[in-house]
Amino acid sequence: MTAEKRECVSILVDAGLSIVKACLFVGIGRSSFYRPGRDWRKADAVVIDAINAVLEKSPRAGFWKCFGRMRFKGFPFNHKRVYRVYCQMGLNLRRRTKQVLPKRIAQPLDVLEQANHQWALDFMHDTLYCGKRFRTLNVLDEGTRECLAIEVDTSLPAGRVVRVLEQLKAERGLPNQLRLDNGPELISATLTDWCEAHHIELIYIQPGKPQQNGFVERFNGSFRREFLDAYLFESISQVRDMAWFWRLDYNEERPHESLGNLPPAAYRDKIENSSLELCH
Fold it and tell me: Comparing C-alpha atoms, which of 118, 134, 108 is closest to residue 216?
């Protein structure tokens, strides 16, 4: 029973009506009136904290998304209890939230001479000869400067980014860290949840500071000059095929000045052999 109905019954009783008639008039049972009031905020404090934790990370999430995240975290509450608390918090009403990025702290552009420690992700875009736009997702190993993937399509949502990372996981494992910007695909719950499940630390650069992701930006410059600006493409499949051969040449044949004029693949072999010699 709500506090408002209890208050109405009390007012009618004070006015001279019996409790039975006052309860009938308000439309509640007499036992409900006699039952001690309960502060739902205290009784459901654990559920409230769990909902607030979800909304802090994903402010635009609806009920079922909140409930799904809570179940994924291992909370045992059933959907009826969560929905009751969700409505009592007023979250079922349309709410306007200002999308504000968490504060990004500038991170030093340090790099370890080690494969698979930290990767960098970034998007690029171009057009086909017919004018149709396409995008590329470039994945770079910062330690060895290897280009791990160039995914090409007209649209590359967060689910596609996760799929690329799953493919790289099967091929060579996963990194400890990912350096990336604040694009909508890269701050989405789809990617952040996947990285959290795989214990990958996300290092976001500050908005408007591409130099904080300098390794992949340098790669993007080479990719733009030597590939995107060098050819006219007729179809997406043609871009994919040519990008695959270009990536192969970039990793295995093209010398890299910062690596002592070694190609990235040869440099990776060099540092791995050095590590094995130190172990022995």
Answer: 118
Tokens 């402010």 -> residue = 59
Helix axes 3-14 and 19-26, enclosed angle (nearest 10): 140
Give the 3-state secondary structure of 235-250. Answer: CHHHHHHHHHHHHHHH
Q: Is there a contact between 243 and 152 (Cβ–Cβ < 8 Å)? A: yes
The answer to whether the CB of 154 falls within 8 A of the CB of 235 is: no
Distance CA 266, CA 245 (A): 17
Contact 116, 174 (CB under 8 A): yes
The span from the CA of 117 to the CA of 175, in Å, is 5
* Rounded distance between C-alpha atoms, residue 107 and residue 211, angstroms: 11
Instruction: Please name the residue that has the structure tokens 């000045």.
Output: 257
How would residue 174 be classed by pLDDT, with cut points 50, 70 and 90? very high
CA distance 143 to 21: 80
How does pLDDT run across 239-261, given as a tens digit for each residue? 999 999 999 999 999 998 888 89
Query: Which structural domains are found in the chain, ordered by start?
Result: 3-88 (no CATH), 118-279 (3.30.420.10)
CA dist 194 and 178 (Å) reads 12
CA–chain centroid gap for 17, Å, is 60
Query: In terms of C-beta density within 10 A (0-12 exposed, 13-18 middle, 19 or more buried), how is residue 243 classed?
Result: buried
Summarised one tens digit per residue, pLDDT across range 218-235 is 999 999 999 999 999 999
The 3-state DSSP class for residue 181 equals coil
The reply to whether the predicted model has a pTM over 0.85 is: no
- As a whole number of angstroms, the distance between CA 99 and CA 86 comes to 21
